[in-house]
Amino acid sequence: SASDVQDRLSSLELRVQQQEDEITVLRAALADVLRRLALSEDQAATMKKMQPGKGQPALREAYSMSCIANGSSSSSSRKPSHSPSVSIARKETLASAAKSEARGWSDRRVAPGRARTTAAASWSRQPPPPSWSRQPPPPSSSPKWSRMQRKGDYIKMFMRGRPITMFIPSDVENYEDTRTELPSEKLKLEWVYGYRGRDCRANVSLLPTGELVYFIASVVVLFNSEERTQRHYLGHTDCVKCLAIHPDKIRIATGQIAGVDKDGRPLQPHVRVWDSVSLSTLQIIGMGTFERGVGSLAFSKADSGIHLCVIDDSNEHMMTVWDWQKKSKIAEIKTTNEVVLVVEFHPTDTNTIVTCGKSHIFFWTWSGTSLARKQGIFGKYEKPKFIQCLAFLNNGDILTGDSGGIILIWSKCTVESTAGKGPKGVYQISRQIKAHDGSLFTLCRMRNGTLLTGGGKDRKIILWDHDLHPERDIEVPDQYGTIRAVAEGKGEEVLVGTSRNFILRGTFNDGFRVEVQGHTDELWGLASHPFRDLFLTCAQDRQVCLWSSRDHTLQWTRLLDEPGHCAEFHPSGVVVAIGTHSGKWYVLDAESRDLVGVHTDGNEQLSVMRYSIDGSLLAVGSHDSFIYLYTVSENGRKYSRSGKCTVSEVVIPSYHVHSCRTAFLIHGSNIISNKGTWNNTGDIPNGCKLIRNRSECKDINWATYTCVLGFHVFGVWPEGSDGTDINALVRSHNRKVIALADDFCKVHLFQYPCSRPK
């Protein structure tokens, strides 16, 4: 099956990554041995005042090659006796780094659908130079190096066995006295923009408190649209995929997928039952029972919600029945290898559970610890590709909606087998109704006994009377997408969740208005306005959205020709620049959203854009290893290419830069990125010169800070990081705290500067 293939691919990816890590450690160990041999020979030669032997050049050549293989630039491969930039860490430090790396192999786990590697990282401060380095340097040594050794020191952080050197600023008199306290500020989630409707269903409901309940990412949102307030249930550790409301309308069950924590350990899929008033967790169910994720779940109805039925996302789609208050599993059985979309308890028959999905509907008889399955027989009726939703009539009949837009009414035979009928107790189709053009995605029984259906292709919501005759219908506008969820609102209102992640509220008479909206694909670009309570987002769905953080509303949206990956406001706030995945970047008017200009740099993804503080420069970072520079005039409306920086020249290995994001800063005529520092000057043909001696940049006072590596921020890296765990970092305007986002669903707050390890 496809899932088996995915598991095997993940396993192979993990093995390849482990072999790469092993090669990295071996290279680091070999480089260390060669380095020590070379320096030992140099020390002996200096002390004895002898010339190097015949074997020395070959040894140094091998040493140089090992440095290049470890990701350093060619500037690091000069002979040790002439290049003091090559320093020696204590033997036990490197040994511990190698051991930690080796230990990290045994702790790796594979997340569903992908391989994740977590290797140990060790930290060390550069020890005092060995006694031999106190002797006068050879004549060819540069004076600049000897001054640097006298003026300051540096910190080394080892990541995956490789060192990253960070120079201590001159204003730090004694690094050992540096202390980092917890920040006094706290983080509290204020607002969530968006809703997950694209790949979920039946996940919008109205609570007695007047709040809408729905989910996105790992957050369950309770939204009061009249008061414009949100509350959030934050108990989950990874993405929520399904939701069920208890018959008392107060308690809620939500199921999540599997994940990975910051230490690389798997986070098990599970169900949380919680109180929607206090937001307190009542029970956590299924730890170690479910595989991959929780696909669907339902509370029992006939016994006042004592039991909970759960179907996971394993190959066999295991169904379990729980006494959720006691956390006890009562029954368990394999359902089918096909996709299961819905599970429901019968509202009046306590022993009947119904499941449906791809090409099937099953009626389960539950008795004690056993579950017996009876398959729905379609007989003369065409078997649909998918049965996508369920509802129950007052007489006990079951309604299903399928991918052909058909409503089927299933009735239970109450007499023994006769011609054309099945045995007693079997559900059979008694009636068929053509309801929608295209798929029928959702069925909703109203309090007054009428029925609402929501269609896919035709985007219609139809109201049916008690005899299942259509009374009224209304079409959802095309820009909102197809219908994924329908729920009863206040009075005559209807709530609708759509495939383009909108939640709509309205009536058949007045139409719909938007209550919640968000992007429909991965969100990559984020930029805050320089002085107003606004921020802009861009995503794979090609939408660019400007939001108000004051009243939590969408100001405007515009559709680009390509997916957006990064964005930045001009300091004037008049325009905003947006980079795409193809090298093209747009400049939009921040008020009118009109197009100001289109430019292209290379043909690969643009990952970051930064204006200088005065707005006279724009730097555009691309995956083609160039940073393109522009002079800016007319308040960000006119751009002229002035040069570019070659990132590939930089000495920091590429794996230290995020897999999809590069950060850099502009200060005056200087630019710094995760990969190096440049001086922007008109005297150089391409307008940019790499500053190879990074110690020259240690005292620059950067106006903003978003780089994830550097003396002032290296303490944010967790032990065991593989160099890709931190996705974004930003320093606050008052320079007191750092916020960062990581691979494990977390936003962190640190005090600035954060220059102590761990």
From TrEMBL:
Compositionally biased tracts (Basic and acidic residues):
100-110
Annotated region (Disordered) at: 69-148
Q: Tell whether Transmembrane is among the UniProt keywords.
A: no
Q: Which Pfam families match?
A: Beta-prop_EML, Beta-prop_EML_2, HELP
Low complexity bias: start-end ranges: 69-87, 114-125
Q: From the UniProt record, list the WD repeat ranges.
A: 433-465, 516-548
Q: Which Gene3D superfamilies match?
A: YVTN repeat-like/Quinoprotein amine dehydrogenase
Q: Where does the EML-like first beta-propeller domain lie?
A: 229-506
Superkingdom classification of source: Eukaryota
Q: According to the UniProt entry, which residue ranges have a biased composition of type Pro residues? A: 126-141
Which SUPFAM superfamilies does the entry link to? Quinoprotein alcohol dehydrogenase-like
Query: What start-end ranges are recorded for coiled-coil regions in this protein?
Result: 2-36
According to the entry, every stretch annotated as the EML-like second beta-propeller domain falls at 523-757
User: What is stated as this protein's family in its record?
Assistant: Belongs to the WD repeat EMAP family.
Protein name in the entry: EMAL4 protein
Q: Which organism is it from?
A: Polyodon spathula (North American paddlefish)
